[in-house]
Design brief:
By secondary structure, the chain is an alpha+beta fold. The chain is 39% helix and 21% strand. It has 12 helices and 10 strands. The longest helix has 37 residues. The relative contact order is 0.11. The structure holds 3,4-dihydroxyphenylalanine (DAH). 3,4-dihydroxyphenylalanine (DAH) binds next to strand 9 and strand 10.
Length: 339
């Protein structure tokens, strides 16, 4: 025996392992069958019988120690390589990013503009905080007229001349005050009304206003334009219906209905089993409105319309609750990934 048990024990304890190669060297020297500890077992036979038991116990204890240290070295090499994981491997493919989606109301607004841009409309905008003149008076709402109450207005308490606009029709006035006909414009925007929030109504929603002023514009132009719109926004077989109605700023006035995009006439609770859904109002611009904006009503005529973007979008995608648009629920928004 070339090495005493005591010496080998010291060597086991002092052995430093800091790489795979050193671990293997350790294994060869102390663990494998041909290691020096293996050799000690081989020497068992030559130990005098009366010492053999004590010898065996010592060699076994040494073997256990060597194995414990071996496991310790394996573990510390592993945790050393874990540290390497803190420094990411920059050559790995990237983790997929979560892109946002186009909001369905935005998609509808964009489609709306696309359709009308191709027939010569531009886009205009006005303020959300509006004065009485632009929101009501210039639009031919007489003072104290009950028509003002059709729209539950948020007024500014300190100055009731100022309100949150109740419709985008106010932008018609701003455009006509500042531009000369011919005018072909679309005005998208947020509007505000004091309404209880439900599946069908909200106190903040969006409208799209349309205005066309030129010489000789007739109701036939209005109808043809809205037919074109309905077929482009929905499908070629979409039907449009005009129902006589009243708005102070148009004469004659109509409500615009389209054939129900949800049940296609079968009857459902969206169209209240009528097969028709209202999408907005329209009419020929009242001569008083033109005059209020300095446009000669004996020379020019025009049509206007106003639609709810939420309503148009709900019909487009079969959305049954208007509150979904503003709740920011990612499960809802994700469904529009492909837009
Ligand atoms: N401003 C109306 C509303 O909010 C909608 C409307 C109706 C707009 C007829 C128009 C129009 O331009 O001609 O209820």
């Amino acid at each position: 025996m070339s090495n005493s048990i005591e010496e080998i024990k010291k060597e086991v304890e002092a052995f430093v392992v800091s790489s795979e190669a050193e671990l293997e060297a350790y294994r060869m020297r102390f663990i494998s069958r041909k290691s020096i500890i293996g050799e000690l077992f081989g020497n068992m036979k030559s130990v005098p019988a009366e010492e053999r038991k004590a010898y065996g116990q010592d060699v076994n204890a040494l073997k256990n120690l060597a194995e414990e240290r071996f496991q310790f070295h394996i573990d510390s090499l592993k945790s050393g390589s874990k540290k390497a994981e803190d420094h990411p491997d920059l050559t790995l493919p990237p983790i997929e990013s979560q892109f946002g989606t186009i909001h369905p109301l935005t998609a509808t607004r964009q489609r709306f503009i696309e359709i009308f841009e191709r027939i010569g409309f531009n886009v205009s905008s006005g303020p959300e905080i509006e004065d009485d003149w632009h929101n009501f008076t210039a639009l031919n709402f007489p003072e104290n007229h009950p028509a003002r109450e059709m729209q539950d207005t948020f007024f500014l308490e300190k100055n009731p001349d100022i309100a949150l606009r109740t419709h985008t029709s106010s932008v018609q006035i701003r455009v006509m005050e500042n531009e000369k006909p011919p005018i072909r414009t679309l005005s998208p925007g947020r509007v505000f009304r004091n309404e209880a929030i439900s599946a069908r109504a909200h106190c903040v929603f969006h409208q799209m206003e349309g205005l066309y002023i030129d010489k000789g514009v007739s109701f036939a132009d209005l109808k043809q334009t809205l037919y074109h719109f309905a077929k482009e926004m929905y499908t070629k077989d979409t039907q449009v219906r005009f129902r006589p109605s009243y708005f102070p700023f148009t004469e004659p006035s109509a409500e615009i209905d389209i054939s129900c995009q949800i049940c296609h006439g079968e009857g459902c609770n969206i169209c209240k089993y009528s097969g028709w859904v209202e999408i907005g109002g329209a009419g020929m611009v009242d001569p008083n409105v033109l005059e209020n904006c300095g446009i000669d009503s004996s020379v020019y005529s025009g049509f206007a319309f106003g639609m709810g973007i939420e309503r148009i979008t709900m019909l487009r995608y079969g959305i049954k609750d208007l509150r979904l648009f503003t709740e920011n629920d990612i499960r809802f928004l994700k469904q529009f990934n492909s837009l």
